[in-house]
Amino acid sequence: MALDALLVVAGLVVLARGSDTFVVGAARLSTAWGVSPVLVGAVVVGFGTGVPELFVSGLAAAEGSLDLAVGNLIGSNLANLTLVLGVGGLLARPEVVPRVLRREAPVSFAAVALFALLLQGGLGVGEGLVLLVSLAGAVVLLLRVTEQEERAVDETPADAAAEEDLVEEVEELLEADDTDDGPGRAGAGAPAPDRRGRARVARDLGRAVVGLVATVLGAQLLVVGAQAIAGDLGLSDGFVGLTLVAIGTSLPELVTAIQSARRDETSLLVGNVLGSNVFNSLAVAGTCALLAPGPLHDRGVTLLAAGSMVLVAGLAWLFLGRGGVLQRWEAAVLLGVYAVTLPLSG
Fold first, then answer.
1. Is pLDDT above 50 for 47?
2. Count of structural domains within the chain
3. Predicted structure pTM score
4. What are the beta bridge partners of residue 123?
């Protein structure tokens, strides 16, 4: 049991560090290839936070534990909407950017509801294809709406500020640890600009590859440890995925939310949560269905927990749209739903 717990902890540490390294490397490669900071930010800030869930659930499904994979996805979505958003709401009452309510909120709710509906009969190849096609449609829709809003002349100050925050966050991400290209380094003997550029691309590619390998290793350790703990305690794989694994993979987002609240920089918090849920519900769930199609055996997870996931997604959308600010009592309600759901799903 102690060894199993150690595997889980080690897996979480390696997974968190590896996924962060992978996302940073991929983001820098994208900018080197001419992708705009706004688009990189949308991927990194939103979908990038779903990398741990992708590898953990994907590996679990590939190893034959679809219940663990789905439990992790439901638990991660629940944790995002209750723990991350709830704790952030209690600490700082995050303001909601208008464009988030217009774009990400309805898409996120639709993705969560579709995921919950399709998994009731198990996840087969057909369900997986529906989810992945829906992901493609959601991405195209968001990109088109974004392009239309960029052309509009009535952009609100809050929208403009949010986009500036997004670009600023991406620039900070891309400049982190970038100390080899300072302005005073172009003197005699310095490599030519194109050589420096190639060296940076090679370094960023290496960063992405190392991060990818570490993410896979961390996910493997976490899945093995979680399955062993489930067997030791007589718990179902689905319940362990819903609780232990999901909370573990959501810890980086929770820590980020707390740090953002302390610095009073919560403009991106809601968008991050909603983007992560879209990725989990469509991309990761669809991938798991293709890797290991089959029935789900833990009805407590697929019925009660999935229903609670849709409930909190709807409540979050309702609360966020009431006044542009998540009130503390609303955050407490979200946390309360989470506290009730976990023990009842066992």
1. yes
2. 1
3. 0.78
4. 294
